[in-house]
Amino acid sequence: MAIQSAAVIGAGVMGSGIAAHIANAGVKVVLLDIVKPGSNDRSAIARGAVERMAKTDPAPLMAERNARLITPGNLEDDLGLVAGCDLIIEAVLERLDVKQDLYRKLEAVRKNGSIVASNTSTIPLRLLTGGMPERFRRDFVITHFFNPPRYMRLLELVAGPETRAEAVAEASQFFDHRLGKGVVLCKDRPGFIANRIGAFWMQNAINVAMELGLTVEEADAVMGRPLGIPKTGVFALIDLVGLDLMPHVGRSLMQNLPEGDAYRAIYREHALLRSMVERGLTGRKGKGGFQRINREAGKRKETMDLRTGEYRPEIKPDLDSIKARRPGDLLGFPDKGGEFARAAMVPALVYAAGLVPEIADSIQSVDEAMRLGFGWRWGPFELIDQIGADKVAAFAEAAKLPIPPLLAAARGRSFYRVEAGKLECLGPDGASKPVRRPDGVLLLEDIKRASQPLATNPSASLWDVGDGVACLEFHSKSNTLDAEIMALLQKAIGIVSKGMKGLVIYNEGGNFSLGANIGIALFAANIGLWPAVEEGQAAGQATYKALKFAPFPTVAAPAAMALGGGCEICLHTSAIQAHAELYMGLVEAGVGILPGWGGCKELLLRLSERKMPGGPMPPAATAFETISTAQVSRSAEQARALDFLRPSDGITMNRDRLLADAKARVLALAEGYQPPAPVTLRLPGPSAAAGFAMAVRDFVRSGKATEYDAVVAGEIGRVLSGGDTDVTEETTEDRLLELERESFRKLIRNEKTLARIEHTLETGKPLRN
């Protein structure tokens, strides 16, 4: 039975977030909570949660209209709505008596075969189902979401000894395919996987930082990017999740962990943390945490002094160890940063190694849980491989830590290895076993292990992903687009034309592409190489044009940020298969230029396809607003609303399935494929450009735009209105490209544009000059 409808019980932050994400999948969901005492609206709690979704940042809904799929109600009047639901998720108070009372009510109304899930992270499944009837136990699982549910990819799934295999399979399928989760099967153990290891890591890191006298800034800098951990490190991460959550998780683990567990030896209730919670300093959701923005002092960044418990101005850490490029180098560093890294990280890695097979049957599950749940670049076992198993064991022995059997088995070898192009991992029995991917998952990293590229250069590579489909991968810094990527794209068009079926443009970087490498343009401009700058822009246009009119189908598969030139390359493909979390936009106005690789043209064409009423003006006006204000989508659905995606373009919820879906789209298009014919447009001309300019002048007068914003917008308006034309004439695609080139040349030679580019490169922020 496929899950087609759902209910969530509990409309708090987590419950409402889960309901919102189910709605993001296009699934109708009932959201119930208790009757609010004294309220005329008996469903006020659930209804208020839905109303807050439109105001919450980060947004739980991928599109505001998804809220229409959520039906709010209350447990007294609307429990009958649950009867028609295939999945019921409980996210109520973490008290066993409260949960079991709810379960008995649900059992009385739910239909046969419906799956009941708890989002608990502290109560064992055996206790939750204790005393419940067999029918309930057979349909019950734990589905542990991480907060916020839309953005955190990990879902820990726990089944009981009596849970139906079909229920586990149905739940896994739904959370994987429909909600885009990385589903990790866990055992019914305290904290499951991610919180069990993560809580130990955070608690130990806090202890060591305080013992060694590190500042918050120093600890987070060391316990961050050098180890492949997000820049939040430890203290900023606690601010993010909430200081008040830490004691709750810690006490739960202390109540449920077996005697002798290493967490018991490191657990501390620090007076500083207790006092911060009492003062309302619970992190970002409170009045501040270990860090805060002091608005009374001109938005000054301040940090908690771990010795005094008082705030002080932020201090940039000055440790040589944070310059380490590799984790092994950091752990061997002689300064206090290296000492902190060793004392904080080695016990956590040893702890993780000692938990397999107690908490999971494979190290792969543990690594995936920490990558998806805590954002680590490498899971614990992958990180041990980065450092070296022998080195970690030696550090552990020096710290007088017992070496678990799994770490001992990895000495002289590694946890992961490649054999005959296939990835294998070390099992609890000491033997290596193949790493298994879920059915339908195709990862470029696996293809790269088993093959050589069809073509490659320092910025990009072309791979054969099977069935006659090629994949163009960017691997420049931040996947920025440069001359080498353009050259390989031209080469790829030639290779695919000789007998392959089509091309996917995809990569597995953090972002699809942050756009053109503007640093190269700035360097050329500063030494007066204007012909090189202008030739590069013209070459980009020519390359994207060749991509659009290639004799085979092309599919872009963007995920995360696809900005500027990264957006433009997508606009020139036959179709887009986007990851649901897509932040796409033509942002060039922010650095004082315009989309110069056909972006103006392609957005205008997409809008014109919609046949808006009112003639040629509405498409031009809509494109002008989008481009001049550098609008960026906050999801793939919003990218569709901005016309970066066509109605026919696809959206994939699970990023691990994106390449397979894009490849399938190429193969579907390949049968009888014909490239598009060039299009001509009737555009409104100078009168429209003048109207756009007047609108921008109003923004300048009100202080919402600068004088130079008006200059940039004027050039954008000139291109989108067709230059010196009117509605009686036809404007070709080539003419629009010519207009882009003309306006780009004007803007790139302006000192204010160069100042914007330089400021953006130095600070990562736009300059409003």
Provide structural commentary:
- The protein is of the alpha/beta class and 769 residues long.
- It folds into three domains: 182 residues, Rossmann fold (3-Layer(aba) Sandwich), CATH 3.40.50.720; 210 residues, Orthogonal Bundle (N-(1-d-carboxylethyl)-l-norvaline Dehydrogenase, domain 2); 189 residues, 2-enoyl-CoA Hydratase, Chain A, domain 1, CATH 3.90.226.
- Helix content is 43%, strand content 14%.
- An eight-stranded mixed sheet has the order 3-2-1-4-5-6-7-8. The protein has a seven-stranded mixed sheet with strand order 15-16-17-18-19-21-23, with helices on both faces.
- Helix 29 packs antiparallel against helix 30.
- It starts with a strand and ends in a 6-residue tail after the last helix.
Do you know the CATH architecture of the largest domain? Answer: Orthogonal Bundle
Globular, elongated, flat, extended or rod-shaped: what is the shape? Answer: globular
* Overall tally of domains: 3
For the record, give the distance between the C-alpha atoms at the N and C termini, rounded to a whole number. 59 Å
For the biggest β-sheet, the strand order reads 3-2-1-4-5-6-7-8
**Main CATH class of the largest domain:** Mainly Alpha
The count of DSSP E runs of length 2 or more, i.e. the number of strands, is: 25
* Helix content percent band: 40-55%
| Strand content bin | 5-15%
